[in-house]
Amino acid sequence: MSDIREIRRHMESVRDTEKVTSAMHMIAATKMRRAKAELDATRPYFDAVKSEIKRAFRVDTKIESKYLYPAGVHDLPGAYAYIVITADKGLAGTYNQMIIKEIERLYKEHESRFFVVGEYGRRYFTAHDIPYESDFLFSAQNPTLQRARVISAKLFDLFNEGKVSKIFVIYTDLVSGMSQKAHVARILPFHRGDFVIEEKEKTVKKPFIFYPSIDQILNYIVESYMTGYIYSALVDSFCSEQSARMNAMDEANSNAEELLSELKRTYNHARQSKITKEITEISSGAKALARKKERRERSARDNER
Description:
alpha/beta
């Protein structure tokens, strides 16, 4: 009896866990749809910013700017800044581990300054004694354009002051609904090739006039471009996290169903064994009573004789 009760309690516990994982799956799906909708609403503006940079290059192919790589130079002196985007918590499959692997790969390659978004990443840096910017405390939940502007402004100032020579963002790109990929992208400085003019784009027939100057205009819109890139990375990472969590919860639900099926078989087997035992005991008792009755009747007949 105690075994059956234990199995029943185990089954109830698995069903309760399955309710939690199903709820987490639904919440993750809702968050992902909302984040994608917000990104789609702001994307036209940042596409226009990128188009303006392309337009500047089409008008003047010899633009010189501190936001461009110097001709023939790739390795720049000074520290590199990495914006590392992780989740605030686990339960998302390998989502966080993909970012951690990139950090381990880049950590010893060059002098680095890490700016971590997400509590999971900060815990990793602390546990492994890797220095990071302790005043850079941003949550990975609910990415907003305002948060991207704050992050962009801080890194942009460091770049302008010469405290960092390159700015990268390490984030997770949602390849498909079932897979994600860690991505390391350089934001600043950029090559002219980052804004290659596509063949389908219209050729400039009449020159544009940039006021006060094309260099000043370019310097002004670069920060907006950087904000858009960071915002896109924040949203992509957030969507990837939710997708990874949905996949993890699906896997957990599948495992729960398999475990429930196994427990049901064990429960039915134990219950059937109990019933069989009870029937056997009843049958044995009935036979014993019949034999006892038969002995009494035989004894009574012998006494009559």
